[in-house]
Amino acid sequence: MSQATLNQVSSLVDDTKLCDIYDNPIELAKCYIDRFYNESICLDDLANLSQMNRFRFAKQFRAYVGVSPYQYVCRVRVLAAQKLIRKGAKPAHVAGEVGFFDQSHLAKHFKKLCGVTPRQYRDEHFKQ
């Protein structure tokens, strides 16, 4: 686990108001994702945080949450993008802020989850 990830985990563990459920490793991983979605998140780091190998972690995460860790990260990022777009941020700027590589990566996942592109979402939101 990288030093940056260790520092993030340390701050996460210290913040009991955000993450009360430490006896469930999947909840801890979800909490980590919810808090650090805009950072690079690696399956190996999540598995190490949960004290499992990557295959066991991925299988247990999917069974507990209903989607793969990657899909969960993408959902959290898309929800964050929706909030920023509703606040008036341009989709081109939102992608990097929520952890996607670029605008096309955001658009792909946004359309898959929301049924519209970020620009269409922005246009629909500001018409109301």
UniProtKB/TrEMBL annotation:
InterPro entries reported for this sequence = AraC_XylS_family_regulators, Homeodomain-like_sf, HTH_AraC
* GO function term, MF aspect, one: sequence-specific DNA binding
> Origin, by domain of life?
Bacteria
Tell me the ranges covered by the HTH araC/xylS-type domain, including all copies.
27-124
Instruction: Name one matching Pfam family.
Output: HTH_18
Keywords assigned by UniProt, alphabetized: DNA-binding, Transcription, Transcription regulation
Its recorded name reads AraC-like DNA-binding protein
What is the native source organism of this protein? Marinomonas balearica
